[in-house]
Amino acid sequence: MSTNNITSSNTKSAMTGQGRVVILGAGESGVGAAKLAQAKGFDVFVSDYGIITDKYKAALEKLSIPFESEKHTEELILNANEVIKSPGIPPTAPIIKKLVESGISVVSEIEFAKRYTNAKTICITGSNGKSTTSLLTYHILKNAGLNVGLAGNIGQSFAAQVATEDYEYYVLEISSFMLDDMFEFRADIAVLLNITPDHLDRYDYKLENYAASKMRIIQNQTAEDVFIYCADDEESLKAIELNEPLAKTYPFSITKKVEPGAYLEETTIHILTEPNNLLTMTISDLALQGKHNIYNSMASGIVCKVLELRNETIRESMGNFKNIEHRLEHVAKISGIDFINDSKATNVNSTWYALESMTSDVVLIMGGVDKGNDYDMLKDLVKSKVKAIVCLGKDNKRIHDAFEDDVEVIVNTFSADEAAQIAFHLAKRGDVVLLSPACASFDLFKNYEDRGNQFKAAVREL
């Protein structure tokens, strides 16, 4: 069966008068949206400008949902009542411009799915830490016995779960790209971890545009809802001034006392959302170490206190949580050298957090698709902690320009194998080889997972 052709194993669409829904993008998000739209009686069509993977093609065929691959046929798209688009498709894509000109509603999978569930939503966004915080929050809620799903930018599609499950709560990791296509969606609990320059190529290279996108996390919230934010993050505070929250607010800080909210006093975290119900926990008891993870743990802790979970459950879960793959993931210790996979660090701020948590000399593997990175914020950490940089990307000029005065050795490599081998030779016993690229992966790899998996395989071959 040719992937270039419009395909349906059985073109009986569910025509029940509810209208036509077209889904652009046939990945996890798009196929999940197709599943829910079909379940709700819509006439569904899926179009992907790229190649649809066998896994998702099989899922669509099983449901008898018509689809096309490697093209967008306008006459099959511009007749939609509504379009659900993948977050990866930019608003500048020709088909999106035509849809907007035609007055056809274009929404995200998250917006569409929320219409069909009464579950409470805990929505977590931020430039860094949102996957870790989402997983930690989900882990605690599940351990507390709540009927909870995990979705959004992580795990199984939100729409697919709404179609097939009956959860009372959802923890949703929400990216700025998703927020851009969310209009009536309302978060019961919204969490903003931080705002640092990321994806600026999608926002006219203006941080204020990106910040405005992040603040859509609180749109439609009421006084009954909750907004949790970092009181130490300058850009978040600026954005909050421009978009005053209506919800109950709970800040968190490691530099000052905030009540209600969460704060760090010496080595103890204090979380207080209601008078006389204080949760305290020493940072050495947290499964997640490093300054950035104190912030992540505080944000999760406030969510759990707002939901009135027991202090003992929160403490126990924060102590036994295992972090996600490709996020400061320990791969192996070889000849006394630790290898750490932080491939999920696709922006400069993530790499800053990774370096900040290192206590040994570092051979840093970085590079890839530069999204307009400003490397200045890394310079002090690179000077004090990094003995060599191994570039892993097709074009490494900006990394050389940024750090040639700060480290003695900067080497170019073009595969994970080569990068791991050279880093191993540059490191000595007691050092850390850290893959923390600060860049997207699409020049040499399919995605950051592929980059991380190839790195891990290369390390195990050493």
From TrEMBL:
Annotated GO MF terms: ATP binding; UDP-N-acetylmuramoylalanine-D-glutamate ligase activity
Stated family: Belongs to the MurCDEF family.
UniProt entry keywords in alphabetical sequence: ATP-binding, Cell cycle, Cell division, Cell shape, Cell wall biogenesis/degradation, Cytoplasm, Ligase, Nucleotide-binding, Peptidoglycan synthesis
InterPro entries xref list: Mur-like_cat_sf (IPR036565), Mur_ligase_C (IPR004101), Mur_ligase_C_dom_sf (IPR036615), Mur_ligase_cen (IPR013221), MurD (IPR005762)
Gene3D superfamilies, per the entry: Mur ligase, C-terminal domain, Mur-like, catalytic domain, NAD(P)-binding Rossmann-like Domain
Official protein name in the record: UDP-N-acetylmuramoylalanine--D-glutamate ligase
Residue ranges constituting the Mur ligase central domain according to the UniProt record: 124-303
Lineage: Bacteria, Pseudomonadati, Bacteroidota, Sphingobacteriia, Sphingobacteriales
Residue sites binding ATP per the record: G126, S127, N128, G129, K130, S131, T132
Subcellular location: Cytoplasm
Organism: Pedobacter psychrodurus
GO CC aspect terms: cytoplasm
Pathway of action: Cell wall biogenesis; peptidoglycan biosynthesis
Reactions catalysed, as given in the entry: UDP-N-acetyl-alpha-D-muramoyl-L-alanine + D-glutamate + ATP = UDP-N-acetyl-alpha-D-muramoyl-L-alanyl-D-glutamate + ADP + phosphate + H(+)
